[in-house]
């Protein structure tokens, strides 16, 4: 993962993040622009997304997309990014990912990927990059997450990122106009550091074995 607008100093206080771009092997994470409204509306207008997310309206139209984009924030406490699949000549909008205060947590992650892009690990790749950014750039003590108990795919994403299950609770559902049971997860900074060190050590061992 690279932080295109960030100096390589993980201990410094967060500075201006408005132009930050996070790049992974296949993805770019950055603040969405007005040009993304049509693609956002097309992908978000999906009942299979709305029924599993807390605050996604359904149906979802172009005006909803424009309002979302106009109100996105990228600062030390709230990050709203679009997720873009990299191509040789363009970046294709495929979903959104965010960090924000919620349920007493300073940083809670939320994300969705358009259904046509499911099954290729894009959500996990985006979530790992967002978690790394939270710890490296925002000095997060922990990152929390929640998934509706029926949403096994979202649960697997968090488990792959190292989140630990901390119990069940209730969360809002705009689609169902009420509260629904959710599984809650949390990733502590010390656990994230251990996982990063383990992955780096394993990768270095593989390089040495191939040498």
Descriptive keywords:
single chain, Aminopeptidase, globular, 211 residues, alpha+beta, 32% helix, 9 strands
Summarize the structure in words.
This protein has 211 residues and is an alpha+beta fold. The chain has one domain (2-210): Aminopeptidase (3-Layer(aba) Sandwich), CATH 3.40.630.30. Helix content is 32%, strand content 31%. It contains 6 helices and 9 strands. The protein has helices spanning 37-44, 47-50, 62-70, 122-136, 152-160, 189-210; strands spanning 2-3, 21-23, 27-30, 79-86, 91-102, 105-113, 142-148, 164-173, 178-188. The strands form 2 sheets. It has a 6-stranded antiparallel sheet, sandwiched between helices. The chain has a 3-stranded antiparallel sheet with strand order 7-9-8. β4 (79-86) and β5 (91-102) form a beta hairpin. The protein is globular and about 45 Å long. Residues 5-14 have low confidence and may be disordered.
